[in-house]
Design a protein that fits this description.
The complex is a heterodimer of chains A (about 350) and B (about 290).
Chain A (H helix, E strand, L loop, with lengths): L2 H25 L7 H11 L10 H36 L11 H14 L2 H4 L3 H23 L5 H25 L2 H12 L7 H20 L1 H7 L3 H6 L4 H23 L5 H13 L3 H26 L7 H23 L1
Helix pairs in contact in A: 1-3, 1-14, 3-9, 3-12, 3-13, 3-14, 4-6, 4-7, 4-8, 4-12, 6-7, 6-12, 9-12, 10-14, 13-14, 13-15
Chain B lengths: L1 H9 L18 E3 L2 H10 L5 E5 L19 E3 L4 H7 L3 E4 L5 H9 L4 E3 L6 H14 L3 H22 L6 E4 L4 E3 L4 H8 L3 E2 H4 L5 E3 L2 H7 L3 E5 L4 H7 L7 H4 L3 E4 L1 H4 L5 H13 L15
Parallel strand pairs in B: 1-2, 1-4, 2-3, 4-5, 6-8, 6-10, 10-11
Antiparallel strand pairs in B: 7-9
Helix pairs in contact in B: 5-6, 6-13, 7-13
Amino acid sequence: MSERDRRRLAFAALAIALPVAVLAALTLGSVPLPAGGVLRSTVARFGLGGPSPLPEMGEVILWSVRLPRVLIAALVGGGLAVVGAALQSLFRNPLADAGLLGVGPGAALGAVLAVNLGWAQQRFLAMPLAACAGALLALLLIYVIAHAGGRPTLSGLLLTGLAVSALAAAATSVLLVAVEEYRVRTVLFWLAGGLEGRGYEHLGLAAGFVLPGVVALLLLARPLDVLSLGEEEAAALSLPVHGFRILVFGLCAVVAGPVTAVAGAVPFVGLVAPHALRAVVGPLGRHLLPASFLAGAALVVVADLAARSFGQYVELPLGSVTAFVGAPYFLLALRGQEGRG
Amino acid sequence: MVGRRAVLQALGVVLATSGSVAGDAPLRVASLNLTADELLVEMLPPERLVAVTRWADDADMSNVAGRVPATAVRLPRADLERLIALRPDLVVVSEYTDADFLRLLEKSGLRHHRMGGLETLPGIRAAIVDLGRAVGAPEAAARLAARFDAVLAELARRVEGEPRPRVLYWGDPHTAGAGTAIGSLVEGAGATNVGRELGLRGIVPLAGEKAFAADPDVFLVVKGSGAATALRRHPLLSRTRAVREGRVVEIPNHLLVALSDRAADAAWWLASRLHPARVPEPAPPPRLP
């Protein structure tokens, strides 16, 4: 099979896998809904076909609870996977992912602050908004500090991010120690990643940043491919290397920050999805980024379904589910690479 | 909804035993917190309580273990989908429930009642009355509040004029300052809360050296939590007067976490350990209402 055919097959498989995962996630849960009923209810929503066959209770569960949650899961997974793929191209390192950006600890600090001050209990959207603000503030801080001494190198930007992350993590620890016992649970659930209690407003908050960010990154896929040839080659092809890197770095943070704000920490998606696909669709960003979006979206939709299905007394943290799947995969892939190397 | 109400009324359910249900009062009530579980078991006829938390049956946590109607669904977690499927007319949530979760409840067409102010004994009393009003059982709530008042009044009468021992709650390393239910429990039992003396607010960590310097008369710990053993093994706290002289009170967990009408019973129990001469019985006498 030619590379082109393999790529087409991969995109076809992903284009089928994502809707199947979404349908499964919409039908399965604490209260199972028939797949046919879900499909007919969806058709009915668009004014086509007959009335929905689902009882009123099923309609409420489907449209008020599950659909926004599943869409957020898809957005989170897709966003993280695209960010992972873009950063891996940017750094020419298959181990790069959103964790490098420093927005996660910033978001965590914002979330813990919102819980500590009681905002999360009193004000709607306070926690994700505070987390989003924390992520974007961390990004701003990294940018300002890194540029304080002139134009920063990429490693300078990364090290600044590391330092800002460490500061945010330290402040989070201080707040966590001081937080009321009853509120610790809320914080821990957020830190471990999860989508319980997320609705359309959270979807709107994430989509407002993630969709434009992802589209922009997809549009930058070709210059990313140019950059992956090497700095000198890219400069020779008239790519403003420094400005382009800052732009991609910033777009990644703009996607990863709000994703972390609505879902908490969801590790490994940005590593596993692009890594698994690179062998199939090739390393070029214009193929890898859209494929990563589809794969990441399907992965997190299924992971979230597992998270809400397997825990009897509590939902499993989404971040733990993705780590349980992602870490072994990644270790195996690394061993395979070392074996070949 | 109308159909269900009509059926229940036609069957002549036990509503009469707890007073009539007001026109817009919820017939089906679900609870998402243990305090509400305890109060609703006392206030509502069994068929109106459609769901409780899984903690309600746990004797270590609950003051109504063994008395929860078998018909009430035990919710292992705040599972919105299961809640919607139960079709409650009212969901009782706690002060700590996230605003985002509440919005989703509303968007799913579920009304909720939020309990709050449970960090003081008067606050608990007010919450009982509020809950009774919300679920359409004001008479039952008034009865619980009357007993609550009577127990605390009798307790206050008995310990009046007694020296107030200085009690430090020790959750290794957390303690209870002002504005906490535990602090109120200590004060309601005729003692002084050392956490408040230290200027603390909320449940907060306390350094061992500060606890040692505070030199409490009594340490209050949760029975079975290992905190008593930890105190006796602590390099510094084991040398406090209270520990050396064996004044470590181990309170059963279900009493410490009682934020319902049983908070008065918890205060009584603690007073029986702190003022045994004045309060010899571990529970309020049955003659109280």
